[in-house]
User: Fold these one by one.
Assistant:
Number 1:
Amino acid sequence: MSLNEDCSSTDDIRSDEPLSHAQTVWFNQPLLLERGGQLPKIRCCYETWGTLNADASNAILVCHAVSGDSHAARHNANDQPGWWDGLIGPGMSIDTNQFFVVCPNVLGGCRGTTGPGDLRAEDDLELATSPNQPIPGVSINSDERSPLEAMSRQGGGDERPYGADFPRITIGDMVEVQRRLADHLGIVKWRAIVGGSLGGHQALQWVSRYPNCTHTCIAIATSPRLTSQALGFDVIARNAIQTDPHFHGGQYYDRPNRPVTGLAIARMLGHITYLSVAAMEAKFDPDRHDPRHIASDFEQRFSVGSYLAHQGQKFTTRFDANSYITLSMAMDLFDLGGNRLKLMETFDECTCDFLLVSFSSDWLFPPAQSREIVNALTALDKRVTYAEITSDAGHDAFLIARDMATYGPLVQERLRSSDTHRGVNLSAGDAVSKGQSPVQLTVAEESILEIIPAGSSVLDLGCGCGELLAAIRDRHAGTPMRLMGVEVAQENILSTAMRGLDVIDYDLNNGLPAFIDDQFDVVVLNATLQAVDNVVALLEEMLRVGKKAIISFPNFAYRALREDYVTRGRSPRAVGEFDFDWHDTPNRRFPTIADVHDLLIEMGVTIDREIYWDVSQARHIDADDDPNLNADTAVLEIHRS
């Protein structure tokens, strides 16, 4: 399937149809707003899937993005599409046979929850105004018709919609409304809080504000704050709306024309930021000079023009311009910290485990921003798994079916069992039942396993499929051990996570800046030394992060390899670790036992234990039996005094 055929976002097919499964609850207690002022009364619109269990322990909160709403997934075959149909439902990654899923429309939105299109009474104005920030508040419209229907009518008497006078809100204010919803539903602690983009901001705000609010936080395609570039796009979008001649200072609801042109332009601009260069080329380049003509005043000279015109105009039928301004401003104000120290302060008290997912081509919420969060969580020794999904789709990837199929299993594994949130890792038997192959260790890994004592905290660099970490856990079952992997191959990250282990997506050639000094008892580098760029720097980092380090590596001075090179004139190649053609080998170095010994002495490193094998002959080689000649594999335990 081509990228063009496979990169349609679920947001593109949303409509303005009534949300037939939406529920509404009113909160009569005033909501004090972070930026000043208050809303005297709040309406919250939400949808649910599944059944809440007796102790309310299976509830998952799903948070939506700017243009989303409460309709995250279909409720039945006849229901309209949801924006996360590929993730939520019976037997899906967020399994509604097992979990009770709740998705509320955000405060400030226009799909049922209190927002700028609601009516206010003039006698509420003083109540809702802060003396430090003269932003008028809101009185709530009790009209139960669709939000756009309610917005389009003129209120009787002194009532009129807030419009641009709606108070400036924050993501923290959105979370406070969701907290009230949780209280209303009898949910003391969420099983998980899940969200993408703005939804990810809400998830992160939840756990930073209420550290014990959930067992698991899943933040997808998000960030601790917007980049200056993203802020710039939002500024342009708001200017497009506010300079529309039909904006009328935000009070356009009783007028024959609304600021649809400005809102459509804002949406068109947003669409461009959601797509990558590759996605736009795939969508529009094949017929760039053959646009699809639609009824529109917008330019349609190119295929991309007709697409943007269609999406922009369609968006105006289901969204309110003032809500777009309100929600984009809330995103722009969101700021959990611009450096690791600040982020560590933000998440220091969190008790949940984390899953973060980013996408390689997302330039609106770039992977580097997710890594900032991961680095802070790692330094705090929080349970965290992180994957950067390879995708050409850009920011929209979190709403695209093929990418949901890639990251969905990571979400499913984080939610897999009631034991996971208590820090109990997946057992060997469970791993096999989930489609993982039984743990099969190499001779070097068996030797490493024998070295590591029970109760140790272990960081495995280049952990592969997580087999060594799983074997360590299973060997010392019942003994609490902090186990974590670092890997860069996407399929290996998934395999490790499916074993119930924490793993982060990180390139070892960049060192280990995510980790603090002496964070682990043991740092392992298994069969990877010959493949890294900067051997000395990585060894230094291992000895900084770990109290001890264990390295295993192929010995390229092994007898058979010497004969290959000297006698037969061929690049060293043998069974097992060395079985690569010269032109596609992953080996960047060709270390020998003697070379590594010399390097460690030069670095002032002490070798505590030496284990040598002739794997091809299934024979242990003693340290005094010339292992540089007779061993093909070395395992060294080292430390720096």
Number 2:
Amino acid sequence: MDLQKLREIVDFSLPEINSCGGDLRQLYEYVGLDASSSLTMSEVSNALYEKIRGAFASGHAEVWRVCRSLRTDLIREHVLQGANLEPYIDVLDHLADAIRVDGDLRSPIEGDWANAIRAAYDHTHIRSWGDKNRERTYSREFKVARAARVLRDAGFPVILESGKLTLDEAAERGLVSTIEDIVSTMGGINVARRIFKEISPLYDSDQQRYHVVRRVSMTDEIAPQMPWGYLLQLAVKHAQGRKPYSNTDSQWVRLCGLVQAFAAIIDVQPYSPTFYSSFDAIELLPFLQEMAVYDVLFCIPQIRPRDVIKLARGMLGWLALDEPTSAGWSIEQALVVIDYLINVSCSVRGPVFVDEIDIRRACSVVPRETVEKILNEVLSHPIFGANRNFSHPTDAPTPDTPKSGHDFFLRPLLRSSGRGYIILDCSVCAPAYLEALLSALRLEMKGLDDKVGLAVERFLKAEMASHGVAVAGGDYNSAGEHGECDLVIETAEAVIFAEVKKKPLTRKAKAGSDAALLLDLAGSLLAAQAQAGWHEVRLRRDGYLELDYEGDTKRIALSGREIERVAISLLDFGGFQDRVLLKQFLEGTMNAEFIVDDVKLSKKFQEINGALAEIRDQLAMLHPGEATINQPFFHCWFISVPQFLVLLDGVTDSAGFKSALWSSRHIVTGSSDLYFDLSYMRRLKRQAHTETASLTVV
């Protein structure tokens, strides 16, 4: 079925139901119902819906997807070519509403489209849905189509085909080239200044970050977002730009218009919430890819600058920090320099220029030549800059192009003229201080990452202990089965199992590679949840776990408490740490098995399938005999170490930790960002406290 066939069927199908003139007895006869003493229009409506469903012997779910795709094509043709929406979109709406039923999500369509469309057309004449505000109902489709029109009118041709709206390949290259040319003409640092001026109102001084997050609405209030993340990466690439600069408001307006429209037609921005949706495994993959590309386009990775030194010491505390590396600098000396760079830039929103002489003067405990080594060999990008092989949001390393994609996050400093350096922004550069240290140290020793993972467990235990949170961990045996708990936090109401995994989100995954995404999520989220799941199974079965940590024994008794399972990643995974996404991922893959064409990845995909099988087995053990399990993974979390540190703000005991974690447990903002959700709930709490205090005073 395509739009042309749909239009032909509708155009040559007069709504015969109109001949009944609204008379219920005639309507009953028309739809094949036996008239009785009680006649209702609802029965007529239901009968027409049954006709629609009965027109298809199988493939109802696929019919619904086809209706959705046709509706999108119809809106695009309407916006770009002036094609009529009505009555075709109305027919599709009624058909899709009737056909949405349970069943095999992948069975092929077998049936009669023409009869179904005619019945849907009849239905549009007896059941009005009130004001047909199409632009509000299908906000995403209209806004994407309008963005395409903006680009087309600007001289960049678009391809409009069935199920497809993209830029012509040459047009896309030309658009990206034009965007980069404007950035270079304005000067990348000038563009960065403008970006941070725009997003400064989103800055949270407690978390030391900009809340650049998804904004969704149930109404038509959300416009296409500005892709600040993508634009910032291009600003980095063209930091020196092309002099003389033309940093004018008109250039800025043109740049924003083009890059905003470009991001909109990539079509990964959610305009309405997804927390009411559910996905099977096949639908889940495109959803994950959209999440990844959205983060690259629109979000700006950050961690709290004041946590950088603490985190570095926690990850590397097992090393002799004062001993020099083979390159001649020690970790302690590097931390002195990093500490100064953070302090000198943290009060500024946007780029900060620092001179080597000022750094040496402030870090006088470090020899001059060592400061130079740390700056040039560890912390700064080469003189030719960062992101040299990055242009398109989905650029990423491949076997043929290993240096492709953005690499700004690997080092915090850009070279300036003379012996100067640029800190693009304190919060934005903060993660790169850690990446730069780890990258340099990997050259020094094998197995660094494995040891860092163990160190992070100890660091988190010490950090929680400093906040009065009692933490246990260790090995146990249960009915002949061995287990190892990284972190166990006990409160009066809950036992919280937390498992730490160091696997990062790679550049290929961030660019939307389905295989890379699954592997990265499997190595962090799935592995940790499978491990914590066995702890839950055994604790519920036996009523206790006897943990042994370096000879010290600790009994964890269930005692009727709740159990929470937390997967902890070393660094942020962006939108993938959203609880809604976690629910979608775990539920959507419950009956799935993934197969990969690349033989080199087959073993890793066997591990993914193994982890999924473990979680399925755990679910069966935890809910024996239950045919339907409501929200089976509601007690599961995916949190990064930097998020964990923010979560601990204001916590002074185990009950306070549970309260902080629970503050975002039952809310959904649509941001897919725990930092934002925590900030939002703390702000509401402060407001409520202020209002209560005001009422008390009055």
